[in-house]
Specification:
Layout lengths: L1 H20 L5 H11 L4 H29 L3 H17 L6 H14 L4 H24 L5 H27 L8 H22 L10 H22 L7 H16 L8 H15 L6 H27 L3 H5 L5
Helix pairs in contact: 1-2, 1-6, 2-5, 2-6, 3-4, 3-5, 3-6, 5-6, 7-8, 7-9, 7-10, 8-9, 9-12, 10-11, 10-12, 11-12
Length: about 325
């Protein structure tokens, strides 16, 4: 927010001085238009400037017709609002309503419609929105450090969750509050928001960064982890098969930080599933319930790995040095 305030101040003062030196009236209005045009990302800034300019030109056109036909009376402004605002909303230009009002109210204040006044208002738009666009393009805060921090936090939390799950399999009486799960969800949501801003601040959209895909992968994987925990809650006794899955989960606690998918854990899951199929059938209801929960847990681990295999960076992408 602090950076945006500074950008807004720079755009406003630059627009005011520019309008003053080229003789536009009133120059302060260029500052107002610049303030309205400053946005949080480059892509949104360009889109906003275009929409506001187009909405203002349309508003100026309708206002000129209405004022010429009905005169410059205060009640005519209501007619302008009632007829123009729905049109702007219909053509997806409602974000330019305020900008349009600034220009139209200037026209009303002049109490006449002529080429000189129309030209003055168009120039005010170009100066105000132009400086807002320039400031938007020149500087946007760097998001890379924030994204790296979010990634590190999410991976640390995933690693902690897998270690806690492994500990529970070895000691079903172990109590864990699951706080890392909620924190991971918040971190993924925050990282997703930052990754979107990072993408929209790029001037070119070819070779888009990997960050949005990364946080989408973690969001899907967190859903599978929640299913793992649901099955883990059904394991109320220690079993040899649980020890094998615990070793697998401990391996995942380290693998979660790997930049690319290598497939070692997938091979271990495949081997464990094979061993489950070769075991003798359960002899008691309790054994059946626990082994069923463990097998379902193993299937959820496999689903977690399928998501990683599909969405993690490929070795050739990692070699190019792209952001993970």
């Amino acid at each position: 927010m602090g950076i945006r305030v500074i950008k807004t101040a720079l755009a406003a003062i630059a627009a005011i001085y520019t309008a003053y030196y080229i003789g536009l009236q009133p120059p302060l209005s260029a500052g107002i238009l610049a303030i309205l045009g400053v946005e949080v990302t480059r892509k949104k800034g360009l889109q906003s400037a275009f929409n506001r300019f187009l909405a203002s030109v349309l508003g100026l056109f309708f206002a000129s017709l209405i004022f010429t036909l009905l005169g410059f009376h205060y009640w005519v402004l209501a007619i302008f609002i009632l007829t123009t605002f729905p049109v702007l909303a219909r053509v997806q230009l409602k974000e330019g309503v305020l900008t349009s009002c600034v220009i139209v109210f200037h026209l009303f204040d002049h109490n006449r419609v002529d080429v000189e006044i129309i030209g003055n208002e168009i120039m005010l738009l170009l100066v105000g929105l132009g400086w807002a666009t320039i400031i938007n393009l020149v500087y946007m805060p760097k998001e890379e450090e924030a994204l790296l921090a979010r990634r590190a936090e999410v991976e640390r939390l995933f690693s902690a969750i897998f270690r806690e799950m492994a500990r529970t399999l070895r000691d079903p009486s172990h109590v864990w509050d699951g706080g890392e799960l909620l924190t991971a969800h918040r971190s993924i949501e925050a990282g997703t928001g930052v990754s979107v801003r990072h993408l929209e601040n790029r001037l070119t959209w070819n070779n888009a960064p990997y960050w949005p895909t990364y946080f989408e992968m973690r969001r899907q994987q967190l859903e599978t982890i929640q299913q793992m925990l649901a099955e883990l809650a059904l394991v109320y006794e220690r079993w040899p098969q649980g020890e094998l899955i615990a070793e697998l989960l401990e391996g995942l606690s380290d693998d979660v930080k790997a930049e690319v998918y290598v497939g070692v854990a997938e091979q271990r899951v495949f081997a464990l599933m094979g061993s489950f199929r070769q075991m003798e059938l359960p002899k008691t209801r309790e054994e059946f319930e626990i082994r069923a929960a463990l097998l379902t847990l193993l299937h959820e681990v496999d689903r977690y790995l399928v998501i990683a295999k599909r969405l993690k960076k490929k070795p050739e992408e990692a070699a190019t040095g792209e952001s993970a």
